[in-house]
Design brief:
The chain is α/β, with parallel strands linked by helices. The protein is built from 5 helices and 5 strands.
Length: about 170
């Protein structure tokens, strides 16, 4: 079964889970935009098949905006650029409900109070969605400029595939 057929079948069950996929990033800071690119690629892939209770959103990564973005959803998947010391384009996955996001994971993020802080603040306030998965794409550069480095751009289809697989396991 292809992704489109799978999404149509999931639409029948949409009342079970309200889902948000949130791409995080700054389009003017090179690889920091990878979450935005992933959200756009996902949107193109599932156009016409995405259940009405689900959303693909883009967010700057500011903590309160991010908390607002997942508010009211049962499950959320976040994609952001990270700098954890791996090779550029490496995908990392964290369960944001079960574990804290290590501070070093997002140490080069352009968000001053961003994804990790939003998750921990929401945890303290009891405002995390029931399921929260964070995909980090190892960045090469956060320099000023538009467009992704080659290694990070080539990771975008892979993170979209992983998100679709994640959605299948969440429902």
């Amino acid at each position: 079964m292809n992704d489109r057929e799978h999404m149509v079948r999931l639409a029948v069950r949409e009342h079970m889970v309200r889902l948000a996929v949130i791409g995080v990033g700054n389009p003017h800071r090179s690889d920091d935009a990878v979450g935005l690119w992933a959200a756009r690629a996902l949107r193109r892939r599932v156009v016409g098949t995405w259940p009405s209770g689900w959303r693909v959103l883009e967010c700057s990564g500011e903590a309160t905006a991010l908390m607002d973005a997942w508010s009211g959803f049962d499950a959320a998947v976040i994609v952001d650029a990270v700098s954890a010391g791996a090779s550029p384009g490496t995908l990392h996955r964290l369960d944001g409900v079960a574990e804290s996001v290590p501070e070093s994971f997002l140490r080069c993020s352009t968000h001053s109070f961003g994804v990790a802080e939003a998750i921990e603040l929401a945890r303290v306030l009891g405002e995390l969605p029931g399921q929260l998965i964070v995909y980090g794409v190892e960045a090469d550069t956060f320099d000023h400029g538009e467009g992704l480095s080659a290694a990070v751009e080539s990771a975008v289809p892979h993170v979209v595939d992983r998100i679709l697989a994640e959605i299948r396991s969440l429902i």
